[in-house]
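Lab meeting minutes (informal)
Scribe: AK
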Amino acid sequence: MSDKTPIYLDNAATTSVDPAVWAEMQPYFENFTANPSSIHSHGRQAKVAVEKARKTIATLLGASPSEIFFTSGGTEADNTVLQSAVLHGGCKVIITSPLEHHAVLHTAEAWAKLGLAELKLVRVNPDGAIDLAHLEELLASSDKAIVSLMHGNNEIGNLLDLNAVGDLCEQYGALFHSDTVQTMGHYKHDASALKVHFMVGAAHKFHGPKGIGFLYAKAGTKFSPLMHGGAQERNQRGGTENVYGMIGIAKALEMAYSAMDEHATYIKGLKAYFIEGLQKQFPGISFNGASGDVENSLYTVLNVRFPSVADGDMLLFQLDIEKISASGGSACSSGTSVGSHVLSALNPTATGAAVRFSFSKNNTRAEIDRVLEVLKKIVA
C-alpha cells in the first residue's frame, strides 16, 4: 500500500455509498422525478416506489409497512419520539443515560428545561454498561415514563440487552425507545419479537445516502409529528418525500441483511487484528468501554486510549496529515472545544489521548498495517 493512499477509519460517523445503492437511486434522479403526492401517472409511479421501499424495510425488520415512517435521519426520528412521548404520550419522566448520543440527551434536557418532563439518568458501570438494577429503581419510582437507551454506543461500542430493558419497561408500563442508528444494518432486529416501541435507522451508517432515515413505531403506540405542513407519511411527517433517498435506504438495508454474517465476520477479524497489533506495539494501551471485547461489543468500533499521548487533537491532526481519518468521538460534536461527553461520563479523571477507529466492509488488513506503522512513528 502506498503511503499516499488515504485510509478511512471513521465509519461510525458515516459510510461510503455502495455503488449498487447509487445505481438503484439514479433513475429517480433522472427519469422518475415526479412528486409522489401528485395524483397523475408520474406521481403514482413515484408513490409506488416509495411504498415498495417501505415494505422492503418492514419485511427486513419483521414489522408491518404501517409501522415504518421515513425521516431525514436518526436525529429527527429521536426528536420525534421524545417530543411525542412528552406532549402527547402522557410521559412525565424521560429516563436515559449520560452516554447517549446528543440527539437523545440534548432533546431530553430541552424538555426537562421547559419543565414538561423530569429527566432521570440511569447509572452506568465502569465498563460503560447500563446498571439495570438502577434502571428498575428509576422505573419503580416514576410516573408514566419513556426509557431511551441506545442499542450500540457510537463511541465505546457497548451493546445494550434490548430484551432485558424491554422486560423492565413492560413490567412498569413504560415506553421503550432505542436509538439503533449504529446497529441498524449490522445486527438483525426482529421488531415482532422485541419489546421495543420505537427504533430508528439512518442510511449513511450502512452504505446508503445521507439525509434519509426511518422511525419504527410499534402498532398501537401513539406518536405525533415533529414536522407539520402536509399529509405525507400518513399525516405523521410533513414535507415532500425524499424519493431517491427512500429508494437508497431500502436498497442499502436489503444489501446489509443479505451479507450481514459475512461482513460481521470479516470486520471482527480486522478489529481483532488491529487490537493484537496495538497491544504488541504499545504496552499499557487500553480500550474504552467494551470496545476491546471483539465478540461482545459493537464490532465496527474500537476506542483506543494512548496513555503516553497527552493531546488527542494533535494525535488526530498528525493522523490526518498521514491521510488517515479517525475521530475522537461522535462526528456530530466536531468543531467544538468540548471533549467526548461519553468518555467524560465514563472516567472523568482518565489521562491520555483517546481515538475512535471504526471499520467497514471496505477496509483491509493492509490499511491496518499502515495505520500501525504511522501510530508507531507518531507516538514515539
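Next up, CB showed the second protein from the same session:
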Amino acid sequence: MLTVLGLTMIAVFTYFIMSGRMSSFTALTVIPLLFAIIGGFGSSVDTMMLEGIKLVATSAAFLLFALLFFGIMIDAGMFDPLINKIIKTVKGDPLKVAVGTAILTLLVALDGDGTTTFIIVISSMLPLYRRLNMNPLVLATIAMLSFSVVCGLTPWGGPGIRALSVLGLEQTDFFIPLIPTLIGGAIWVIIVSFILGKMERKRLGVVDLDEFENTAYPLEVAATQECSIKRPQMLWINLSLTIIVMAVLIMGLVKPAVLFLVAVVIAMLINYPTIELQKERINDHGANALMVLLVVFAGGAFTGILSGTEMVDSIADDLVSIIPESWGSYFSVIIALISIPFTFVMSNDAFFFGVVPIFANTATAYGIEPIEIVRAVVLSQSAHFLLPLVPATILLIGMLKINIAEYVRFAFKWSVLTCLVLILLAWTTGAIMT
C-alpha cells in the first residue's frame, strides 16, 4: 500500500513539474501534503514536514552564502583579466576559439547559476563566432558541457545541493572524493572543445583578424553592469581569499555554511565597504538565491513526508527484492548509468527530491553509503541540459537563435560520452564503488 501511494505521489509530482502546471515550490509542498492526508497521516504531517525542513536548513544556508560569495567575486571582476586574456589570445583560429570557450565557461560556471553563466559566455564569444562563421551549435555544446561538469560536481551547484539537502549529508564528504573527477571532467571538456574546434578549423581555416572589434569589453556587455562595481585593484586580494576559502573547504577545517558566511562578509567588506553598496550586491543576487532556497526548503518538506510516512522505505524494500543480489556491489554504478535517461526526461527537482531518496535508501541494503549514491547521480548533468524544459537551456538556444532539435542532435553524443567519462573517472578514482 505504501509503495503504491509513494510511487503514485512521485508520478503525480513529476507530471505537474514536467507539464508546467505547477512551480517546483508549489508542487513540492502541495502534492506530498495531499498524499499524506490521503494515506491517513494528516495528524502528524506538520511534524514530518518540519523535520524535513530542519534537515535541509544547514545546506540551504551553505547554498545561500556560496552563491553570494561567487557572485561577489564575479561582480568585483576577479576573473576579468583571465577571461579577457582568453578572448584576445584566441583571435581568428577556430580551434583556439573553441578551447577558449571551454576554459571561459569552466571559470564562469563557478557562479553555479546556468542563466548567468550562459549570458556571460554567449555575450562574450558569440560576436567572435559570427565573425569567423563558426557553427553556433559548437558554442552551445561546449558551453553546456563545461557548465554541466562544474555545476554537477560542486557542492554549491543545483544537483549537489538538492541531493545533499534532502538526505542531510555533508558537503565536504560529497565534494572531496569528486575533485579528481571534476579535474578530469574539465580536461575532457577541453579535449571535446579541441576536437570540435579542429573540425571547424578544417572547415573554415584560420581567419586573420587585424582587430577584434566587437568584443573589446565583453564582460561589461555580458553582465550589463556598470563599471562602478568592478574592483580591479582588489584582484590579488580576492584571488587569495578565494584560494583560502577553497583550501579550508577541501580540508574540512570549518563547516561549509559557516565558512562561506564568513567569506561573504569579508568579500563584502573589502570590495563594497558601505552599507548602500552591500545592499545593492545582495539585492542583485538575492532574487536568484531566494528562489533556490524556496525550492530547497519545500524539498525538505517533501522528503520529510516521504520518510515520515515510510513510503521511501517501502519502495526501497521492493526495489531490493527486484534487483539480483549479485548486482548489489555494482549498485552505485548502475544508478549512475540509470541517471542518464532519468535526468534527461525529468527536471532536477523531480529527480533529486523524488527519486534519489529511494535510490539512497535502497543502497543501504547493499552496504553502500547514501553519499556514494549522491556522487553517482550528479554525473549525468550533461544529459539533463539537453532537456528543452530547463530554463538555462531555453536561454542558451534563444541567445544563439538555434533550433532545439538541431541542438539535441548535435550535442547528444557528446553529452552521453561526457556522462560515461565522468562515471568512469568517478569509478577509477574511488568516488563511487568504494
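CB comment: The radius of gyration is 22 Å.
No objections, moving on.
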